[in-house]
Each structure stands twice: as structure tokens, then as C-alpha cells.
Design brief:
Strand content: under 5%
Radius of gyration: 48 Å
Low-confidence stretches: none
Number of helices: 3
Length: about 170
């Protein structure tokens, strides 16, 4: 109790003493200033710096190499995903074309997802059916021959010429 400051209504307690300041570390010697060291120490420091630099270079090249391998793997994965997507699209297009009886020459009109392809195939199928029906309605029934084909125009059909062609073909 004797060490504690007395407080009375007239006195203010004293603040504890501030801790002693921590001395700052001595400034590091400049990296290039090795002249004050013995020759063997200077030689050792230079060798260690070279060795450290080679390790840093090796570490950096390994890091770059691993990034390159990772990047190659990511690129291969992306290419595989693209190929898979293209293959699935072609398979879907082929299924839809077969289902609706669409001519392969019209495959360029089937794009998008399966629902869009089906809608386009349905329209193409309807148009093709309508066109076939219209062409059958426009062909004169009376002009049809027994084979179901319309006769050739009179100028294009010469029986003597046809006989000559048959005779010439059988001689050879």
C-alpha cells in the first residue's frame, strides 16, 4: 500500500510511466556494400546469391510449366465439351430428320435445341406434303400413261430415233 499513489479529492492520480521505446533495428547494410567483409565472406555471399537466383529461376520455370500443363488440360477439356455438344446436336438433328422424313439436304434448316428442330422439321414436313399434293393436283390425269408418268413432248419423242439407239446399243 505504500507504493500506491494517494488520491484525495484535491489530487489527480498520476499516469503510469510510458513504456520505454523499442529501439529501431539498425539499418541494413546496402546489398552491394560487401567491401568491409573479408574476401572469403564476400565470395561466400556471392555464391549464395547465385545459388538463390538459380533456385528462383527453376521455381519460376516449374511454375510456368505447371500452368502450361494446366492450361493445356483446360483447353483439351473445352475442346472435348465443344465436340460433345456438336455430336449431340448432329445426333438430335439426324433423329428429327428421320422421324419427320426430312431430306438430308434440308438439314441446315434444323438449328437450335431439340424443340426448335422439331418445330422446324414439322413445318418442313408440312410444306413438303403440301407441295406434293399441289403437284399431284396440277398434273392432268388424262395425260398420264400406264406407268404413272406424263408423256414426253411430241418434239422430244421420235420412235424411229429410239429404235435406232436400241439397235446401235445391241450391236456393241
Amino acid at each position: 500500500m505504500g507504493d500506491e499513489p494517494q488520491t484525495t479529492p484535491d489530487t489527480v492520480p498520476e499516469a503510469p510511466a510510458a513504456p520505454a521505446p523499442v529501439p529501431a533495428p539498425p539499418p541494413a547494410a546496402p546489398a552491394a556494400d560487401l567491401t568491409g567483409l573479408p574476401d572469403w565472406a564476400q565470395s561466400e555471399i556471392k555464391n549464395l546469391r547465385k545459388e538463390s537466383a538459380s533456385y528462383r529461376t527453376k521455381a519460376k520455370s516449374l511454375e510456368d510449366e505447371s500452368k502450361s500443363e494446366l492450361q493445356r488440360a483446360l483447353d483439351a477439356l473445352e475442346a472435348s465439351k465443344t465436340e460433345l455438344s456438336t455430336t449431340r446436336t448432329e445426333l438430335t438433328r439426324s433423329k428429327v430428320m428421320t422421324e419427320f422424313g426430312i431430306d438430308p439436304e434440308l438439314s441446315d434448316f434444323l438449328n437450335g435445341d431439340e424443340a426448335a428442330m422439331r418445330a422446324a422439321a414439322e413445318k418442313l414436313s408440312r410444306l413438303a406434303t403440301d407441295q406434293r399434293a399441289a403437284s399431284l393436283r396440277s398434273a392432268p390425269v388424262a395425260a398420264l400413261q400406264s406407268g404413272g408418268t406424263a408423256p414426253a413432248a411430241e418434239a422430244d419423242w421420235d420412235p424411229a430415233e429410239i429404235a435406232r439407239q436400241v439397235r446401235d446399243a445391241s450391236l456393241y
